[in-house]
Every structure is written in structure tokens, then in C-alpha cells.
């Protein structure tokens, strides 16, 4: 059974850097083709993709947030870390991570973590 | 940038068929994915690669994708299917979501 859980601060101040950790079990990020993605959802808004890291350290970022994001993995700890710099109140959202299963054609996200709410306020 | 457009809301009576559309330029040339999100819960994958159902997803969920439109169809809709539904596709190695459709079953 694959599970993921997000952790990190619930409150950050404007201009600070947010660091979120996705801890997972039931799969390994050393397995060919596997990955972990990060997403967010502002209150009452749609899902937004942020970043993705594959087993081979191939990283992808949302073009609109690319300059603020860094995604890394620690395979020994089964964790993926997302950092977002220069936080702003508009970044207030629930942040999710999700498993990317192997596929020879195109990837999807399943399952998802429970999400963690991050509020940006002074 | 690539955009996926969904109707904000769809209503259906219990037992009837609900169709939720997702439009994008030449979407039929890509794979479409669908996620269900109930209030206060995380998204759940219900359709992958246009028309495949993950294990545990009821047979009443089906999908199609052709031309510029992907469609999620829920046959015999149940009250438990009331949720937000998001389509997703890939474009130039980036992930794109639609704006979501709120399905109301009444």
C-alpha cells in the first residue's frame, strides 16, 4: 500500500522560504520510472501543479513558479522536499504531494497525500 | 501556455448519466486524466490514459478523448459521486489542470 504525508510549517511570514517534506512508504524513488509530484490548492480554487521529481533526478517545474521552486529527494529517508522562496499571502493554500507510478507512455498521480495547509501572513 | 477548460458546474439527477467535458487544443492527441475531489478530501484518480479505471473505481466511471474534448461520463450517478472533478493533461513536459467542475447530484 502506497501512502504519502506532507509536513511543514502551518504559518510562514511574507518573504520567507517555505520548506515542505513529503514522506512516503510503499514504493522507492530508486525504482525506474517512479516519481513524486507537488501540488497546491488555494481555498475554493482549482488544483495547481508545482513540481515533479523522478527516480533519476529528472526535475520538472511549473513555468510560472520555476524561479521560486526547488525539489529534491532523499531516497534513504523516502522523502521529497519542496522549497518555495519569497512567500506571499497569495501562496496560502493546501499543499499536496502525490505518487507518480511507472508508465512507458505518460504519467499520472495516484495516490495523493492528505495535504497540509500553509498560511502566509505577517 | 496550454489551457484546459471545464464547465464550472454540472447537475444530474440520481440514476442519470453525467457528462463532464474538458476542452483543450488538440487534447485528443494527448492523454487525459480525471480526478475526483470531495469536500475536505484529497484528489482521487478516477480515469487515467483517457479511459482506464484504476482498481477500486466503480465501473460507472468511464472516459473518452477525441479532437479537442475529453469527457468523463458517470453512468447511474449516485449521491456519493457529488464532488469536484478535475481533468489533467501534459503539455511540453508540464502538468496542466482544468479549472474543475462541481458535480451536483439532486
Task: Please write out the topology.
The complex is a heterodimer of chains A (122) and B (106).
Chain A: E1 3-7, E2 11-12, E3 18-25, E4 35-41, E5 47-54, E6 59-61, E7 69-74, E8 79-84, E9 93-100, E10 116-120
Parallel strand pairs in A: 2-10
Antiparallel strand pairs in A: 1-3, 3-8, 4-5, 4-9, 5-6, 7-8, 9-10
Chain B: E1 9-12, E2 18-23, E3 33-37, E4 44-47, E5 61-66, E6 69-74, E7 83-91, E8 94-97, E9 101-105
Parallel strand pairs in B: 1-9
Antiparallel strand pairs in B: 2-6, 3-4, 3-7, 5-6, 7-8, 7-9
Shape of chain B: globular
Nearest-integer average pLDDT of chain B: 97
- Structural Rg of chain B: 13 Å
Strand content of chain A: over 45%
Low-confidence stretches of chain B: none
Overview of this structure, please?
Chain A is an all-beta fold. Chain A is built from no helices and 10 strands. Chain A has strands at residues 3-7, 11-12, 18-25, 35-41, 47-54, 59-61, 69-74, 79-84, 93-100, 116-120. Chain A has a 6-stranded mixed beta sheet with strand order 2-10-9-4-5-6, with no helix packed on it. In chain A, strands 1-3-8-7 form a 4-stranded antiparallel beta sheet, with no helix packed on it. In chain A, a hairpin with a 4-residue loop joins β7 and β8. The mean pLDDT of chain A is 96. By secondary structure, chain B is mostly beta strands. Helix content of chain B is 0%, strand content 46%. Chain B has no helices and 9 strands. In chain B, strands 1, 3, 4, 7, 8 and 9 form a 6-stranded mixed beta sheet that branches. Chain B has a 3-stranded antiparallel beta sheet with strand order 2-6-5, with no helix packed on it. In chain B, a hairpin with a 2-residue loop joins β5 and β6 (69-74). Chain B is globular. At the A-B interface, β5 of A face β3, β7 and β8 of B.
Produce a short descriptive summary.
Chain A is mainly beta and 122 residues long. Chain A has strands at 3-7, 11-12, 18-25, 35-41, 47-54, 59-61, 69-74, 79-84, 93-100, 116-120.
